[in-house]
Write a structure and sequence with these properties.
This protein is an all-alpha fold and 88 residues long. It contains three helices and no strands.
C-alpha cells in the first residue's frame, strides 16, 4: 500500500503517537538509561514501529522519518540498555 493512498487523518495521528512515544523514551533515558521505565518506553516505541511495518510495509519508514524530523530526536536501535537485566 502506498502511504499517499492512506487516510491523512490516520497518518497524522500515527505521527503524533510516534512523537509522544519517542519523547517519552528520551525523557526516561535521560533520567535513568538502564532503568525499567526506559526499557518500558523503548518497548512501547518498538511496538509502535513494528505495527507500522505490519500495516504499511514500505511506507512505515516514511511515518518514522516524519516523527524524527518533527522531534529532532533519534530512534533507538531497539536493544535493551546495557544495565537492564531480569531474573525470573
Amino acid at each position: 500500500m502506498l502511504l499517499a493512498m492512506q487516510n491523512a487523518e490516520t497518518i497524522h495521528r500515527l505521527v503524533e503517537q510516534g512523537e509522544f512515544l519517542l519523547k517519552c523514551f528520551h525523557e526516561e533515558r535521560g533520567k535513568d538509561p538502564a532503568g525499567i521505565e526506559t526499557e518500558f518506553a523503548l518497548g512501547e516505541l518498538m511496538g509502535w514501529r513494528s505495527t507500522l511495518h505490519t500495516l504499511y510495509r514500505d511506507g512505515a519508514e516514511d511515518i518514522v522519518n516524519r516523527v524524527v524530523a518533527r522531534t529532532r530526536l533519534t530512534i533507538p536501535d531497539g536493544q535493551v540498555p546495557c544495565g537492564a537485566t531480569h531474573i525470573f
